[in-house]
Amino acid sequence: MARPSVALVKPSPVSRCPPMNRQIESMEGAQQFDGIVGQSEPIRALVNMILKVAPYSFAVLVRGESGTGKELIARAIQRNSTRGKAPFIPINCGAIPESLMEAHLFGYQKGAFTGASSDKPGLFEAANGGTIFLDEIGEMPPPMQVKLLRALQEK
């Protein structure tokens, strides 16, 4: 069975950290890891990685096959960060029609197109300092991926 992996957009060296291992051992039943269950070495390494990336405010790439728990990992990263109480917005990029994708992500202003009778904030604005989890990003049309990359770089 394939396991999800976490890749940092701004990589940092990964090393074993005994204080974190003790923290992991003392977290039995802790809410910030709700849904991530297990005591195997790969799960411990995953929790260790979550604790390492959570304090930093940069994009994290979580990879894995369908059903491996990528969203659980993203939620755990957010819960353990300073954004823990801010919104967590999951977006299935493969489920949004291409014609609506830009307006859905970035919003629009009144009068921007026929039928735009009022301003509508996009999901990036709605996140308001929280986390946006982009699932199935490979299903997003390439031109929209470029716009998304630009938005993330200008963040």
Rounded average pLDDT: 80
User: What is the spatial order of strands in the main beta sheet?
Assistant: 1-2
Strand content: 5-15%
* N-end to C-end Cα span: 36 Å
Helix tally equals 6
Domain count: the total is 2
Taking all Cα atoms into account, the compactness measure Rg is 18 Å
Structural class: alpha+beta
Shape: elongated
Largest sheet: 2 strands, antiparallel
The percent range for helix content is 25-40%
H-E string = EHHEHEHEEHEH
Task: Please outline the helices and strands.
Blueprint lengths: L4 E4 L9 H8 L15 H13 L6 E4 L6 H10 L8 E5 L5 H9 E2 L11 E2 L1 H5 L3 E5 L6 H13 L1
Parallel strand pairs: 3-6
Antiparallel strand pairs: 1-2, 4-5
Question: What does this molecule look like?
Answer:
- The termini are far apart.
- The protein folds into two domains: 85 residues, no CATH class; 70 residues, Rossmann fold (3-Layer(aba) Sandwich).
- It has 155 residues and is α+β, with helices and mostly antiparallel strands.
- The chain is built from six helices and six strands, in the order βααβαβαββαβα.
- The strands form three sheets. The protein has a two-stranded antiparallel ribbon. The protein has a two-stranded parallel ribbon with strand order 3-6.
- The relative contact order is 0.15.
- It is elongated, with a radius of gyration of 18 Å.
- The longest helix has 13 residues.
